[in-house]
């Protein structure tokens, strides 16, 4: 069964998640946006064995620490979708623009596309391409645990911004309705910022999504 712990990082309090298989203790680090020492301390405390880094998208608060973490632990970076390559190419500029520590450049060893799967130990994450916040945004879903890691697509009571380059409001709404809602109303999602919620609660109460 998939287990996870959320570790807020960066001044933006971005939800970095450490995911692991409770049988093998093999782990993935999802969206290490920064504060790498804090992430390393959590890995040590959990006594898990990281095998890869996963990215939902390539904004600085989600990807800013990926290069350093990959170098220090000799881990491959997987994701996001290739539509976010321009954000990765501009990561150093993003760091300067938002006052983040200098980011180490990187390139994923594997781009993800809709319908792909990623293994974490003996557990499997299904990949859904959910553009709108960024063109290459992906979401990771584990049906067995009824958990989805949705980055900045959806929040408790809100949705992702669409005013950055490559963002589009209607595309984001379509991603939520077509890709997230079919995962089930009882699925708990971990957003990129803020508290967890369920797709059912958001479908009923999120002011941006009523009627969807």
TrEMBL record:
Its cofactor is Zn(2+). Keywords: Hydrolase, Metal-binding, Zinc. Coiled coil: none annotated. One of its GO terms (molecular function) is metal ion binding. It comes from the Bacteria. This is Putative hydrolase. It comes from Rubrivivax gelatinosus (strain NBRC 100245 / IL144). Pfam families: Lactamase_B (PF00753). Gene3D superfamilies: Ribonuclease Z/Hydroxyacylglutathione hydrolase-like. The lineage of its organism: Bacteria, Pseudomonadati, Pseudomonadota, Betaproteobacteria, Burkholderiales. Residues 13-193 form the Metallo-beta-lactamase domain. Residues 193-212 are annotated as: Disordered.
């Amino acid at each position: 069964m998939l287990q996870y712990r959320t570790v807020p990082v960066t001044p933006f309090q971005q939800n970095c998640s450490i995911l692991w298989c409770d049988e093998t203790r093999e782990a993935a680090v999802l969206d290490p946006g920064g504060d790498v020492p804090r992430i390393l301390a959590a890995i040590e405390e959990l006594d898990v064995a990281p095998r890869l880094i996963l990215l939902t998208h390539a904004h600085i608060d989600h990807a800013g620490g990926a290069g350093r973490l990959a170098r220090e632990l000799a881990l491959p970076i997987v994701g996001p979708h290739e539509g976010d390559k321009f954000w990765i190419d501009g990561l150093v500029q993003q760091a300067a623009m938002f006052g983040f520590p200098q980011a180490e450049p990187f390139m994923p060893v594997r781009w993800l596309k809709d319908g792909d799967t990623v293994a974490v130990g003996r557990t499997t994450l299904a990949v859904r391409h959910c553009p709108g916040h960024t063109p290459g945004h992906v979401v990771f879903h584990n049906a067995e645990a009824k958990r989805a890691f949705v980055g900045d697509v959806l929040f408790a009571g809100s949705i992702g911004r669409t005013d950055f380059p490559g963002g589009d409001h209607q595309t984001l709404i379509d991603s939520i309705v077509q890709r997230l809602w079919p995962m089930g109303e009882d699925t708990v999602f971990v957003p990129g910022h803020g508290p967890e919620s369920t797709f059912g609660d958001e479908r009923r109460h999120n002011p941006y999504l009523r009627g969807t």
